[in-house]
Write a structure and sequence with these properties.
With about 130 residues, the chain is mainly beta. It contains one helix and eleven strands. It has one domain: Metal Binding Protein, Guanine Nucleotide Exchange Factor, Chain A (Beta Complex). The strands form three sheets. A five-stranded mixed sheet has the order 9-10-4-3-11. It has a three-stranded antiparallel sheet with strand order 1-2-5, with no helix packed on it. Strands 6-7-8 form a three-stranded antiparallel sheet, with no helix packed on it. The longest helix is centred in the N-terminal third of the chain and has 7 residues.
């Protein structure tokens, strides 16, 4: 069993997760594209890990898209995605980018690829920069 720590971009919200992740999905559904503002969301999933808010719990907001099971938690100050307990407490969904701890789990799969953004293919072929391009 491992401990992972995370926070939001502005540092107001801090959390600890004790336990292991069973899966790591890159979700290409239209909802996750809107949530992330990108081609996909990168979320870790656990049915057994325990989430403890260490700071800033009063800054957390949750949004559930009406008529769906799609929900997200975020910091009301900076908008960063945060862990979200779903399915009546049976599932913990953790945005991979919210973790400050280094973790070694690799993505399990791409999901909802039928909704994949049209520009999200063969990205390994484009130019790369270590920092912002000049």
């Amino acid at each position: 069993m491992s401990d992972n720590y995370g926070s939001c971009l502005c540092g107001t919200v801090k959390f600890k997760i004790t336990g292991d992740f069973e899966s790591f999905y890159l979700c290409h559904c239209e909802h996750c594209q809107k949530d992330s503002g990108s081609a996909h969301a990168a979320n870790l999933f656990s049915q057994s890990a325990v989430l403890v808010w260490q700071a800033g719990e009063n800054a957390i907001r949750k949004f559930t898209l009406p008529g769906t099971r799609h929900s997200k938690s975020f910091c009301k100050l900076c908008g960063s995605a945060l862990p979200n307990v779903q399915m009546g407490g049976a599932l913990l969904v953790v945005p991979a980018g919210s973790l400050d701890s280094k973790f070694t789990i690799r993505p399990t799969a791409h999901i909802f690829t039928s909704s994949r953004a049209t520009w999200d293919s063969e990205l390994e072929a484009i130019q790369e920069f270590d920092t912002f391009p000049k």
